[in-house]
Amino acid sequence: MPDFTAVPQLRNRSAEEPGRLADIAAWLAAAQDSERAQPLSRPRAIIFAGAHGIAERTIDGVGIGPHTGADEERWRENIATAAQRAGAGVDFLECAEAAPIDVSPAMSAEQLEHHVELGKQAADREVDSGADLLIASDFGIGGETVAAAVMGRITYTEPVAILGTRTSGGMTDGMWKTRVTIVRDAMFRARNLEGWEVVQTIGSPSLAGLVGFIAQAAVRRTPMLIAGPLAATAAVLAERSAPGVKCWLRAGSSSPEPAEALAYKELGLSPLLDLDLGAGHPLGALAALPLVELAAELA
């Protein structure tokens, strides 16, 4: 399975003055290997888009969420508009569809390696093209449920706890019960697996791509904003594969998903914004980008 080289860690620096903006500026300066943070010239958002087989699954006639295919095009347009307003380039990387993780492996070993390599190549391509800050997120119905299954398995968290009990935002009690059942069955299928086998069995190609992207961007010494449960889960997996990745990360915004909060806790990250996004997760990092840019300007 894929392996990563040692990741260079940021030098330990503290801001001259306390405060969140000073903390962001100090982190950015360290990533830039500069005494003071320098203004960003080419931030880029890379969105790993992929369908998840569980999005079509129903139990007793009820699916996992209220979102439909029509929502996807609208969210793509919203993300592109937000990127333009934030002054960031954006690229959607299309990933293969994952099989339903509660009943079959998400992907083959070959697909896993292909998508990890896809993510690594994307990171190299962006850095080689001059990107000085990268945004990593995902797009696709069911990604939150995949993140819950993987985070639940690798942290030994019960399905109900990793999903929480929130049913707002259009999610009914029936949808929540379907999610719990899918996550429970997926975690059971992966109960004796470790490492990359977990990703292959109950993850998704877009998750694999994000792991490769985040880990390689850290190798290339590039600061990153991450957003959404799947990207946060990918960051945990990347950190476990190559300790030091988390030093290059900041979390853009929050979501109501416990899996994302648990991932940020393990990484030692606090979201820059608290937007409580239930969908369109890349918007959280794009909304936080001006905050990072302001910190650099004020530095």
UniProtKB/TrEMBL annotation:
UniProt keyword terms in alphabetical order: Glycosyltransferase, Transferase
GO molecular function: glycosyltransferase activity
InterPro entries in UniProt: Nict_dMeBzImd_PRibTrfase, Nict_dMeBzImd_PRibTrfase_sf
Protein name listed in UniProt: Nicotinate-nucleotide--dimethylbenzimidazole phosphoribosyltransferase
Annotated source species: Corynebacterium singulare
Transmembrane segments: none
Origin: domain of life: Bacteria
